[in-house]
Structure formats: C-alpha cells, structure tokens
Amino acid sequence: MIGSLAGRLLVATPLLGDANFARTVILMCAHDEQGGFGLVLNRPLGEPVALHLPEWSARTAEPSVFFVGGPVQRNVVMALGRFPAAGDADWWTRVTAEVGLIDLRGMPGDLEGVTGSARLFVGYAGWGAGQLEGEIAEEAWWVLDARAGDAFTSHPATLWRDVLRRQRGRLRDLRLYANYPPDARLN
User: Fold this and answer.
1) Which residue ranges form the domains of the chain, and what is each CATH number?
2) Which residue pairs from 29-33 have beta carbons closer than 8 angstroms and sit at least 24 positions apart in sequence?
3) pLDDT score, position 152
4) pLDDT value at residue 94
5) What is the pLDDT of residues 110-145, one digit of tens each?
C-alpha cells in the first residue's frame, strides 16, 4: 500500500474512463490498507440546501446546493466544514489541517461550533482494499495537495482546471492538461 491519501486530492486524468468521475476532484477523507473514501468537490447537484435542511442554508458555501459526493450510497448526506473555533469536537473527523468531516447525527442541534463554510454532499466515492492503488498505477488519478478552499469553492465548474493550473515544481507539466479537450478525438 502507498501511504495514506487522507487529506489529499484525487484529480481524474483524461485516461479515466468512468463517466461518474470524468474531470472530478475528490478530497480523500479516509484511506488505509482496507480501502478509502472521499467526496467529489466539483459536482453540484443543483438541489438547494434550504429545501431540505434550512438550518444549514446560511452556513453552506456558495453555491448553497447539495453536491454529488460520489456514486456510493446516494441516500446518505455527508458534510465538510472548517474546524470549529474551540478546537476538536466529538462530531468532527479531521481531514486536513483546516477541514473536517462533520457527523450530522452527533453535532449540536443549534450548529454551535460550525464557524465557517460547510458543504453538503449526497453519496461518496469509495474504494476497497488495493482498488485505489491499482487505479493510480493505471494513471486514472493524479494525487495532489489540497487547499482548504478547494472544499468550499464558489466555482466548482472550474475546480478541475484550477487545481491543474496551480501546479508548480516537478508537477508543473500537469498545467498543460488544464485545457485538455473533453474528447481529444474531436480536437
């Protein structure tokens, strides 16, 4: 197994043939030898949060809609948020230094402690033991560093391109893919 990818981004390469993940950016929430799961950051569902969870509407990042977190368990709602001002809480799981996975069932009803933007997702992306490592070896994913703002971007439609454009150093060649056509045969 490669080291844990929790807190890193999986960015779909043009070689990834699964339509569920074409041009997606996934924040890995957990990853170990038994598998992993993450949330797709750039697939807004279009369904307003206020229609189903009005108490969250003022706390969600723009656009204030649910996002498709992935194709697994589309009847489950998950949330990402910035860490509470008071520090760790029992209703969080740290994903990056600034972003955590919120346990919607265990948090206070008044949402006390959610200090910044949150994003709500239906479903998630999941991999069994060794599956993700195999996909990375097949060059289906680039593994890149996440920024706190990635999870709460107000421009999800351009996140794939934006993440590739910001690469520097040994990864700077990835910037060339930012303008890769959706179907290279039509280029």
Assistant:
1) 8-155 (3.40.1740.10)
2) 29/93, 29/95, 29/101, 29/124, 30/6, 30/93, 31/4, 31/5, 31/6, 31/132, 32/1, 32/4, 33/1, 33/129
3) 94
4) 82
5) 565 566 688 999 999 999 999 999 999 999 999 999
